[in-house]
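[job 4471] stage=fold_predict status=RUNNING
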Amino acid sequence: MIRLLYLLDLLRHQASVDFWVLLNRVFAPFRRGCITFRILPLRKEAKIGQNNPQKRRSLGYAGGLFFLFLTSCYQISDQISPKIDYAAETSYLQSLSSPFDPLTSLEKETDWGKELQIGSCFGKDFDLYRAITAFKRAEILLPADHPRKLQINYLIVFSYYLGKKYQEAISYFEKTNLPRVDRSFVAYHDLLIILYESYTHLNDSEKVTLIGHLIYDIYPETASNLQLYATLMEADLVRLHVLAQNEAPSLFASNQETIVPTLTPRNFFSTYQQGKKSVSKAQLFNALLPGAGYFYIGQKKTGITALFLNGLFIYGAYEFFHRGYIAAGLITTSFEMGWYFGGIYGAGEEAKFYNEKIYEKAASPYMTEEKIFPILMVKHAF
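[job 4471] inference complete, writing structure tokens
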């Protein structure tokens, strides 16, 4: 926009005052609601200097303007950034048992035991705010050295995780004794999954790698599924293609040994490949014929609009140059280049957006059915 205003200012100094009268006459039909583009005849002296050195200077500005717009059009990457999310259903959580031993009759009669039971009931109903509140009250009432302390700590972390409060889950986790537990802890498998996904959402790659190595060493099958989860969420098509061949280096194995995933995305990958659109083709088609790139991805109305507007500005620029209004032709050409190169860029972006939606539509049910989401890998709940 700044470049265009600068060029308009240059042209204003090169053209006569009557040039602005010309622009008013040209765009008057649009202000009246008329869709026909007309070039109204002007006085002879209003024409921008035929046989005038300023004409060559204006053409030089046109060349510079074309170069600026040409360099602003660039190739769009095929890498997509899909948004895939999943929320566990209440019925699914209710079907999972608790990893901890039931409270004894004596424990149920204590204040902390009552709060623990209330929190568990709220958790099963997915009323997580009240569940966390009850668990924290139980934590306060429970003696510091009581063996149930870790249980309550874990349930609070688990509740934050279910509510997708990943920062709160990690902050609370790091303040407890849970970082010191080992595989003897009954909910150790689920705790590692919670930490893996939480650190992933917090973009803590160092912790993600550390937890991933730990899961791989103890639970290789879970590590394989988490590897597939990470690949699908990042839309790493290169690695996804390798996984579709049933063999890939593990993301977590320190020696990069080859593992065979329990779940393979072959059908999903082939479905996506068949439905996706080429970003480069969309840009190429739109460069050859404005609007064709939008037709390629199924946006017919946008394609027709792009074709009409480009044709309108091309015709207007031609008429201006043909009648000797060089400055007006240059400005109209600048608008057309904006539509033309913007259309090429837009077609590529729309093709990329189309691919993201195709990917999301295919990935979400696949990951749900095959239980690739981490929450579906946990074995216990409240």
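[job 4471] summary: The first strand starts at residue 248 and ends at 249.
[job 4471] exit 0
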